[in-house]
Amino acid sequence: MTTTPILSLSAAELEGWLAEHDAPSYRRRQIWTWLARGVTDFAAMRDLPGALRDALAGAFRATSLTPIAVSEADRGLTTKTLFELEGGHSVEAVVMRYAERSTLCISSQAGCPIGCPFCATGRFPFGRNLNAHEIVEQAVDAQRVLAAEGRRLSHVVFMGMGEPMANYRAVVESVRRLSDPDLLGISPRRIVVSTSGLIPRIEQLAEEKIPVTLAISLHAARDELRDVLVPINRKYPVRDLVDAAQAYAEKSGRRVSYEWVMLAGVNDTERDARELGVLLKNRLAHVNLIPFNPVEDTPYHAPDRASIRAFKEKVEAQGLNVTVRDTRGREADAACGQLHERVMRTKLAV
Description:
Mean pLDDT: 92
Low-confidence stretches: 344-350
Radius of gyration: 21 Å
Distance between the termini: 26 Å
Largest sheet: 10 strands, mixed
Helix content: 25-40%
Structural class: alpha/beta
Strand content: 15-25%
CATH class of the largest domain: Alpha Beta
CATH topology of the largest domain: TIM Barrel
Shape: elongated
Number of helices: 11
């Protein structure tokens, strides 16, 4: 396409373009407001002069993302969309509707280079990092969908495809833009940035002074097991990771969330519960247990409810705050990367 995605321009760049077209800088805020409402046609931006709308339509397009597949679950409360990026790669974004909030699970990379064996995202070759505007466009699209339902996007979690900290600059820029009151105005305190354990980026994030919640994809409390489940642990061992996360918590004042995908017979034993308790003792921490969403052609399975409950109680008994995540969309390509995998398999079979 010859036109430019308008959200690829910073506020200053868009205001510069407006000045070149004899338009005042406040028009930029009007344009962003329309985009945040879900408007994708510049002609529909009624408070802009007709000549400016024509110029915008000739120079820009509202988004660079093309939806190519959608799956729904939970009676329509969960919607997963697969978007095609410029260049042919694809990413997923998931909208989850709750009684008092609407949450978007957002992707930061096409694929993932980390290679966790229980994750569907890593089963296809890594594509590329997303640009900041491609991350923001996922949220703008979610807001468009939710606005039509009388809802508003209130929370964003960087837990979709990719390792956010491996695309650090774009992720931080997108967080700043998501929280910009002229665009979506989502409080950074309602944004979660996850990582499998890139310690230097955790330290860098602590200096940004953006009060996002840090989530650590932990899954094991001893190096021997975590080396297998989260291969980057071989470079950044688990105790060093938790120390870095604690330093972030102390500097930001934000409690760290430790994510633990529960795998039957692998990390749900009494030993695992005990080691987790020791690892996080006296830390500003919250443990989030996540029942495994089955991924085809992997040896892993979710524990039954009784086992999950027993594990939770054992961890809680050691003084930690623990919740079991409300698992959404099991019947609709629920696990990260599964819709992408299904669509890619279909293409390869043709």
